Every structure is written in structure tokens, then in C-alpha cells.
From TrEMBL:
PANTHER family: ENDOLYTIC MUREIN TRANSGLYCOSYLASE. GO terms for molecular function: lytic endotransglycosylase activity. It comes from Thiohalobacter thiocyanaticus. The keyword Hydrolase does not apply. Belongs to the transglycosylase MltG family. The keyword Ion transport does not apply. This is Endolytic murein transglycosylase. It catalyses: a peptidoglycan chain = a peptidoglycan chain with N-acetyl-1,6-anhydromuramyl-[peptide] at the reducing end + a peptidoglycan chain with N-acetylglucosamine at the non-reducing end. The record marks E230 as: Important for catalytic activity. It is a single-pass membrane protein. It is an enzyme of class 4 (lyase). One of its GO terms (cellular component) is plasma membrane.
């Protein structure tokens, strides 16, 4: 039977104490790291009241993104964010694009946003009454769009790229507010607005009033663009459409100034004169009967509907009061009186 050496026992006791102290220190360190990690998970990343937009590049890993966020002062511990992503299974599901991080978002919220695919959407608003050239200028000025439709790309080539060769572009893009992520091409914006107009026009044509003096949806689009340019008060849209429909039914010339102005192109200086009304162009509805060859602007959905369902009545003329509204007349004599009063300012 053996007995322990008293000297060995004395040496072993301090060693055990050291090991115990190291174990306690290690447990304390682990506990501190755990609590620090939990604080990290609960700490808001964004303090701005409007939140923050974060750009994630294609193929960017979570660890690279975490280091970038650390450099930008958004997070204190990039490795904690990487660890969170791995533990939650989200590290490999980070998507590229621009993301809006709301105020008060925590790291948990951040990963939820970055894996959602809900990228920032920018509004693109097409205004009813714009010409196609105004639309192209507007798109070229939007900083979040990808620009590839240089001036060298003429309208014919643009329509070919949209899959509508030989089609005149005027009037074919539905005015509305659309939303797109950064980097969307101008062509994609036009493609979406084109499809929207084609779909709306097709449905409106199917539900049109019977016996309209229009032979095709395109003729309705042309007339809708004229109605759009003549309308100052939305409530008058169907009345204005009714005037033009009745004039077409009677074989009367439309005699509408916006078509003349469109035909003048860049020579229009803001004033329309008698000589302009007498100068023949394909768009001069004072010198030519029927509709002009193409639309003259982007008609709203409401203008299209007004043409398909014009207001009934006997008015064949209208003149502006100068406040956006019009006086409607059934006879030329009544119309001339209205012109003297509201245009010539004569009693």
C-alpha cells in the first residue's frame, strides 16, 4: 500500500488553484463575450431619424460587408455580425442591391432586410401631356437609372429595341408613377410604360361605346392625346371628347390648336398666329380633315376612357375661359360670341 508524498501534495494544491483560477477566468471571459454579443444583437445600428440606405455589391460576402460597416462606424464588432449570419443561416443569402435600413434597426433586423430582396424603389413619374421627346429628356436626367439611350439612338431605333419596329413612339407610354431599383435601364422603364398603355388601350377599346367614328384603337389613342392637351379641368374631359367625336361624325375638321403646335415642332415660340393656322402640315387640323397621323402627346388613362365614352350633347365648339375651363357651344354664332368675350375681351 502506497501513500502520497506530502511534498507532492503541497505542490499539487497550488497547481489546482491555478487551474481553477484559469477555469473561472475562462468562464468569466465566455460569459462576458456572451453578454457583449447579446448587447450587440440589441443595439440599434442606425440612429438617423430617416434611416439609412445601404448598398450591397453583387457577390459581396457577409464578412466583407461586416468589415465595411465597421469602417463606416455602423457596427462595433464585425465578427459578431458574421457569427450571427452563420448561426441564423443567413450568411449565404445576402442579396445585392440598395436596401433601406429603418431607424432603430438592430443587427437581427439588418440581416432580415438584406435577405428579403426588398430593395429601394425609386419613383419614375411620366406626366400626361408630355411629348415623347420630353419623356426622353426626363429619363436621361434621372441619376438612379442606367443610361444607354444616347442622342445617337433615334426614335426609330429605340422602338426597334422595344420590339415595335416601324411604330411611331408618340403617345404609346402610359403616364403614371412607376417604381424601379437603382440601375434599371431607361429602356426597361419605357418597356413597362409601353406594356401598360397597350394593355389599357386594348381593354378600353373592348369596352368602348358602340358606333364611335373610330376605326382602330390607334385612332382612339390619337384622339385621346388631343383631348389630353385640350383639357384643363378634369371634369370636362368627356365633354371635350364629345365635341371631337361629333365633329368627326359630321365630317367637320377638328380645328384644334395643339395639333398645329405639335406640327410646328421647334419653330413654335409660345405663340400661335393666324399664319400658323393656315400653314399646312400633316398635323394641321385646320387645313386637313380627320385625325392627325400620330398622337401628339402622352394621353392619360382618363383621356383614353373619355374618348371611349364621350359625353352626350350637342356642343360642336369650345373656347377657353382663361382659367383652364371652357365654354361649350352648339352653334358657330354662340361660339363666336364666346370667343369675343373670353379671347378678345369684347362684350
Amino acid at each position: 500500500m502506497t501513500t502520497s508524498d506530502p511534498q507532492t501534495s503541497r505542490l499539487r494544491r497550488p497547481l489546482l488553484l491555478i487551474l481553477l483560477a484559469l477555469l473561472i477566468a475562462a468562464l468569466g471571459a465566455v460569459g462576458w463575450l456572451y453578454l457583449d454579443y447579446q448587447r450587440f444583437l440589441r443595439t440599434p445600428l442606425v440612429t438617423e431619424t430617416t434611416g439609412r440606405v445601404l448598398q450591397v455589391q453583387p457577390g459581396q460576402s457577409l464578412s466583407v460587408l461586416a468589415r465595411r460597416l465597421h469602417q463606416e462606424g455602423l457596427i462595433r464588432h464585425p465578427r459578431y455580425l458574421t457569427l450571427l449570419g452563420r448561426l441564423s443561416g443567413q450568411a449565404g443569402r445576402i442579396q445585392a442591391g440598395e436596401f433601406h435600413i429603418p431607424p432603430g434597426a438592430t443587427p437581427v433586423d439588418l440581416l432580415r432586410v438584406l435577405t428579403s430582396g426588398r430593395v429601394v424603389q425609386y419613383p419614375v413619374t411620366l406626366i400626361a401631356g408630355w411629348t415623347f421627346q420630353q419623356l426622353r429628356t426626363y429619363l436621361a436626367e434621372q441619376p438612379f437609372l442606367q443610361h444607354g439611350l444616347e442622342e445617337a439612338v433615334d426614335d426609330a431605333e429605340l422602338m426597334r429595341r422595344l420590339g415595335r419596329p416601324e411604330q411611331h413612339p408618340e403617345g404609346w407610354f402610359l403616364p403614371d408613377t412607376y417604381h424601379f431599383p437603382r440601375g434599371t435601364s431607361e429602356l426597361e422603364v419605357l418597356r413597362r410604360a409601353l406594356r401598360a398603355m397597350e394593355n389599357h388601350l386594348e381593354q378600353a377599346w373592348k369596352g368602348r361605346d358602340p358606333e364611335l367614328p373610330l376605326d382602330s384603337p390607334y385612332e382612339a389613342l390619337i384622339l385621346a392625346s388631343i383631348v389630353e392637351k385640350e383639357t384643363g379641368v378634369p371634369e370636362e374631359r368627356t365633354r371635350i371628347a364629345g365635341v371631337f367625336i361629333r365633329r368627326l361624325e359630321r365630317g367637320m375638321r377638328l380645328q384644334t390648336d395643339p395639333t398645329v403646335i405639335y406640327g410646328m415642332g421647334e419653330t413654335f415660340d409660345g405663340n400661335i398666329r393666324r399664319r400658323d393656322l393656315r400653314t399646312d402640315t400633316p398635323y394641321n387640323t385646320y387645313t386637313r380633315g380627320g385625325l392627325p397621323p400620330t398622337p401628339i402627346a402622352l394621353p392619360s388613362a382618363e383621356a383614353v376612357e373619355a374618348v371611349m365614352h364621350p359625353a352626350e350633347g350637342d356642343a360642336l365648339y369650345f373656347v377657353s375661359r382663361g382659367d383652364g375651363s371652357h365654354v361649350f357651344s352648339a352653334t358657330l354664332e354662340e361660339h363666336n360670341r364666346a370667343v369675343r368675350r373670353y379671347q378678345l375681351k369684347r362684350p
